[in-house]
């Protein structure tokens, strides 16, 4: 096992933990937040394929073409505890299968309001240290994309 580093981001939602959890694992909503994630990342990209099997052991796969480059991110759900926790392995290449990155989303009720707070941890090999800030920006864009879907801003931006 190699040395590990951790990306960590936090995002506050006006929505309940249940709504945030459901938005991440619902395949129809996931397709929408993936597109919103690309827009928030400032990438001129298109979602080309998406598959989410929301059960422990189920697969997830997101594929897109960004600035002419095809990217595929995939993994397996490791924990699904509605509404408080989602964990999954996260890879971009089959060679990572023996030691994949792990992403864990902890979803908690907002302490002083009706919303929720998501803290996302992405444990990855230390060899990717130069990519840590970019990884955190990507996860913030993804959480923002989920917020856009929950708040229905993604639909407004498509009009």
UniProtKB/TrEMBL annotation:
Q: List all membrane-crossing ranges.
A: none
Taxonomy, superkingdom: Bacteria
**Per the database record, which ranges form the Activator of Hsp90 ATPase homologue 1/2-like C-terminal domain?**
14-150
Entries under SUPFAM superfamilies matching the protein: Bet v1-like
Q: Which InterPro entries match?
A: ASHA1/2-like_C, START-like_dom_sf
| Record-stated family | Belongs to the AHA1 family.
UniProt protein name: Activator of Hsp90 ATPase homologue 1/2-like C-terminal domain-containing protein
Origin organism is Devosia soli
- Taxonomically, what lineage is the organism? Bacteria, Pseudomonadati, Pseudomonadota, Alphaproteobacteria, Hyphomicrobiales
């Amino acid at each position: 096992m190699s040395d590990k580093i951790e990306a960590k981001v936090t995002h506050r939602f006006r929505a309940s933990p249940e709504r945030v959890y459901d938005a991440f694992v619902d395949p129809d909503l996931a397709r929408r937040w993936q597109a919103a994630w690309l827009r928030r990342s400032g990438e001129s990209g298109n979602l080309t394929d998406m598959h989410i099997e929301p059960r422990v052991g189920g697969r997830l796969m997101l594929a897109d073409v960004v600035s002419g480059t095809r990217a595929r991110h995939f993994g397996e759900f490791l924990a699904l505890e509605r509404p408080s926790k989602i964990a999954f392995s996260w890879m971009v290449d089959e060679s990572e299968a023996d030691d994949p990155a792990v992403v864990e989303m902890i979803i908690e009720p907002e302490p002083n309001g009706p919303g929720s707070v998501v803290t996302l941890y992405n444990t990855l090999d230390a060899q990717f240290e130069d990519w840590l800030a970019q990884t955190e920006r990507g996860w913030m864009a993804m959480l923002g994309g989920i917020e856009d879907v929950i708040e229905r801003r993604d639909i407004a931006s498509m009009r």
